[in-house]
Amino acid sequence: MDINKKIKLLDFKLTKSLWNSFFWVYKSKFVWNWIDFIEHKEYNFWDPIKNINWKTIGKTTKLYTKIFEEERDLKILFVIDINKKMNFWFFDKTKKEVLEEVFFTLSSSASFYWDSIWALLYDGKKNIFMPYKKGLFNIFSVIWELNKEENFSEIEENRSLKAFDYLNKINTKNTLIFIISDEIKDDLNNNLKILSKKNEIYYINIFDNFENNLINIDLDLSLWYNNDFLNISLNDNEKIKEYKKNRLSKINNFNNILAKNNISYKNIDTKDDVFKELYLFFNGLNR
Predict the structure, then answer these.
(1) pTM value?
(2) Nearest 5°: CA angle at 70, between 19 and 12?
């Protein structure tokens, strides 16, 4: 599809779906580093104790709490995996198209509130780096790079490790980071652990629906799974059941590993409504 048509289509889908309800749905712990005091109000049981103004006790018989206004000038980094498996598709769209919808939704939300956006596109062989900018320029630049087929030509097993190592070397800190990848790891490398201590991270896995579920059709194929080829017949219900069980276990294990390091996790596949999934995900985190 022509890049200009793609941008218009993404913009239309975003505007139609969640323009008024999605923006500002994500919140970062780093916004509390820059807050403005507005006024006092009488303390209620559910208000944070840390915001109580204890000095008012001596002047009145009531407790008062401080009301703050968050400043929305966040630094937001998109770390995007561009290995060639992103071009995989079995149904109506590729993983790369889902990736674009995820990126466009989150980056448009950031741009709407004038947050600073930057991006790192990686495949283990090269890094495409776009420095901080406000406004729409970086959004369109990333989409432009995502539509260059030559950027999706490598599959490097240690690609994420190298990308996180690069970010640590340039001392990335106090940043809201969205990692968008189709990679599921059995453990968490030290580079990501270090990065998570200095930043707030959301890890978004992009899958093809077929990868997670397979389907019962009369077809034999080989899948690259657990660093080996898995030969499977798609009319073999027992093997499909075993595959799905192992796949779900691996995803849940990865989620648990990330959670232990204060990294929020979400997976989205090609059958999902991207905007709805992200909206429900971030609203759930904010409760």
Answers:
(1) 0.74
(2) 10
